[in-house]
Amino acid sequence: MWFGKFLFAAYLMASVLVTITSAQNSPQDYVDAHNAVRAEVGVGPIAWNKTVAAYAQKYANSRVESCELEHSGGPYGENIAEGYGNLNGVDAVKMWASEKPFYSHDTNSCVDDECLHYTQVVWRKSVHLGCGRASRYDAVIKEDIPESLQALRLGNYKFAEGGTTDAAFEAKSCEEEFRRCKSPDMNRVVHDVSIVAASTVQTILSC
User: Fold this and answer.
1) pTM here?
2) Are 87 and 105 in the same domain?
3) CA 20 to 30 Å from 67, out of 1, 81, 165, 183?
4) How much is the pLDDT for 36?
5) pLDDT in tens, 95-133
6) 205 backbone φψ class: left, alpha, beta (φ>0; ψ -120 to 50)
7) How many CB atoms neighbour CB 91 within 10 A?
8) Is 141 in the same domain as 124?
9) 82 and 117 share one domain
10) Residue 58: CB partners within 8 Å, gap ≥ 6?
11) What is the annotated signal peptide range for this record (predicted)?
């Protein structure tokens, strides 16, 4: 049984007040991940803010259907990330922090705007953080697929009808559909493949 899993993280930081609180998606996980990056450059720690977290959760809930990376346009600084598989909140922070090489401390600027997520993480005046999370399922589950095809993760490819099970599959990347959190076509194959079930998993993280 295979299922596709989407994760989408939106991270919001505010210059306000705080307190807080499982996997690497807990409030403390987010706070610790941010503070580790901030400490590298001598920036003070950030703390959890329930008000900002509530805003982030509401936004995550609103994006779970489309899963498109659009900023909320709200009152807080914001980073957004999405991924397929086991991406969690800590992974998202690492993703944003990976832009550090594109930041020039001497000029306080980015190379081609490629470090804006990183600067949001280490922004000195950002002292509070809030995160939210939402999920949904969305995948096609199949059995009796030839071993050569089982190496292809469900949802990353679309198989056209025609030919035989040995050499018969025209695989097309469907990353565009996954980016939009749409389930791929039923991945129909002509011989010896039975569709067992159709369900979907999509997880949205907002911070």
Assistant:
1) 0.58
2) yes
3) 1
4) 96
5) 889 999 999 888 889 988 889 889 888 988 888 888 776
6) beta
7) 18
8) no
9) yes
10) 132
11) 1-23
Distance of CA 32 to the CA centre of its chain: 19
- What range defines the domain where residue 150 resides? 136-205
Tell me the CA distances in angstroms from 104 to 1, 25, 101, 112, 116, one per residue in order.
47, 30, 8, 11, 12
CA distance readout (Å), 106 to 41, 109, 116: 13, 8, 16
pLDDT range class, residue 142, cuts 50, 70, 90: very low
Q: Domain ends where: 129, 151, 171?
A: 129
Instruction: Clarify whether residues 41 and 119 are in a common domain.
Output: yes
Polymer length of the chain: 207
- Reading the block at residue 77, the tokens are 């600084």
* Lowest mean pLDDT segment, chosen from 16-20, 55-59, 67-71: 16-20
Q: What is the pLDDT of residues 177-205, one digit of tens each?
A: 333 333 343 333 333 333 333 333 445 56
In CATH, what number is assigned to the domain containing residue 158?
1.20.140.40
Arithmetic mean of pLDDT, 27-55: 91
Counting Cα atoms < 13 Å in the Cβ hemisphere of 107 gives 8
Cα–Cα dist 168/127, whole Å? 56
- Alpha helix segments (H runs only) across the chain: 27-40, 50-63, 89-97, 116-122, 147-150, 175-179
Tokens of 128: 């509070």
